[in-house]
Amino acid sequence: MTDLDILAYALNTLAKVDEDDFALSAQYWQRRSYKKGEYYNEYRNVCKYLGFIIDGVFRTYYVDDNTGEEKNVFFFSKNQVVVSFKSFITQTPCNYFTQSMVDSKILYIHIDDLNKLYQQSHKWEHFGRLIAEMAFNVSMNRTESFLFQTPEQRYLQLIEDHPDIFNTIPLYQISSYLGIQGPSLSRIRKRIIGK
Amino acid sequence: MTDLDILAYALNTLAKVDEDDFALSAQYWQRRSYKKGEYYNEYRNVCKYLGFIIDGVFRTYYVDDNTGEEKNVFFFSKNQVVVSFKSFITQTPCNYFTQSMVDSKILYIHIDDLNKLYQQSHKWEHFGRLIAEMAFNVSMNRTESFLFQTPEQRYLQLIEDHPDIFNTIPLYQISSYLGIQGPSLSRIRKRIIGK
DNA sequence: ATTCGATTTTAACTTAGGTTAAAATTATTG
DNA sequence: CAATAATTTTAACCTAAGTTAAAATCGAAT
């Protein structure tokens, strides 16, 4: 399967984008590779692209004004969209950095081209809605995890949801994602072993 | 101004729904009043309506399986949409209760009618996308507040964003929304006075 | 295999929220 | 206005995360 086939399949699953619909978009998709550490989008830049991860992992993080500490907001991995949702959706400057955590490969489309597709076809407008809905679900799951779960529960949940990530990225990135400090994650891990 | 005028104005501001667009929808909007404590949507029900609050306040809350404790996820107030986003968007059973916290009055539209509008008009499909985007922003702000702010900072932020709510609803509802216990909010309030 | 750097854990101490129950305050209503 | 209910604060004690720095471990590269 080519990269475009993988994408076409994913879009069909996600938004019932069929062959003809996808054909409309084929000219717009571009390919790019990221070395570990390279940025998909940076602070204060408007996110103009919607990416689809062929391979790799990205993180979106916020830099605390006071402490300079980095806090991971989202992880994105293989066969998922990578985008700075709010910035992309509203075309306003981004508060975050989105960075490749390993060597990665994506297909991406420019917002202007996506808007052309929205104009051209109801199906693509529908896709646009689904992107926003997906963004919502991702954020909502995160909100719920903070509101309903302890850090320990969030950690166990993350293992369940993304066992893959743990082989790839360092634990201090995980603790940042969980909203706790490194030593706290160590203590949690120690506690869990005893269970 | 009639209720419908208020709604038309809000939709125009939100999604550039003009007079003709709105006229398409006019037949579908219905009116309803809620006594304090009545439910907009209950746990396990699919949320089939999108509401617009003419007057009043609603809360969406989750009941903890283990403790039976209620945790407030969202507040909705005057001139805002009230809806159980995820359930409405995906038409799946809701994990939450959405309840009127004071006597309230809304206009609402059925999902089937909204879908008719999506079919009929690009502008309404656009509106559908904006609803999802708005849902995302609401949730994202909430995620960020948990990830970047202490309970004290969240409390101060809520005062700034919704000074109105504090006259209307009890503090224990606020503490639930902030993700802390009653006594903690009391301590925070005491701490703040000394500043 | 050894060294250097990165990552993870540990330790010791501090801070703040959780828990439970009682007291104080505020609202409501007969 | 008194009584009752609802809400908020306080107290006392517990638990877990924050903080800082040092130690231990792991990995990559020479």
Structural features, described:
- The structure is a homodimer of 195-residue chains.
- Chain A is of the alpha+beta class and 195 residues long.
- Chain A has two domains: 3-147, Jelly Rolls (Sandwich); 149-195.
- The first copy, chain A, has nine helices and eight strands.
- Chain A has helices at residues 3-15, 19-26, 85-90, 111-120, 122-148, 151-161, 165-168, 171-178, 182-193, and strands at residues 30-34, 39-41, 49-55, 57-63, 70-77, 81-82, 97-100, 104-110.
- In chain A, the strands form two sheets. Chain A has a four-stranded antiparallel β-sheet with strand order 1-8-3-6.
- In chain A, a hairpin with a 6-residue loop joins strand 4 (57-63) and strand 5.
- The longest helix of chain A is centred in the last third of the chain and has 27 residues, at 122-148.
- Chain A is globular and about 55 Å long.
- The termini of chain A are far apart.
- The model of chain A has no long low-confidence stretch (mean pLDDT 93).
- Chain A binds a DNA duplex (30 and 30 nucleotides) through helix 9.
Secondary-structure element pattern of chain A, one letter each: HHEEEEEEHEEHHHHHH
The helix content of chain A, as a percent range, equals: 40-55%
- Could you please say which CATH topology of the largest domain in chain A applies here? Jelly Rolls
Radius of gyration of chain A, whole Å: 18 Å
Query: How many structural domains are formed by the residues of chain A?
Result: 2
CATH architecture name of the largest domain in chain A: Sandwich
Strand order of the largest sheet of chain A: 1-8-3-6
| End-to-end C-alpha gap of chain A | 44 Å
Report the β-strand fraction of chain A as a percent range: 15-25%
Treating each run of at least 4 consecutive H or I residues as one helix, how many helices of chain A? 9
The CATH class of the largest domain in chain A, by name, is Mainly Beta
For the largest beta-sheet of chain A, the strand count, sense and barrel status come to: 4 strands, antiparallel
Kindly state the number of beta strands of chain A: 8
Tell me which oligomeric state these chains represent: homodimer
> What structural class do the secondary elements of chain A suggest?
alpha+beta
**CATH H-level homologous superfamily name of the largest domain in chain A:** Jelly Rolls
Overall shape of chain A: globular
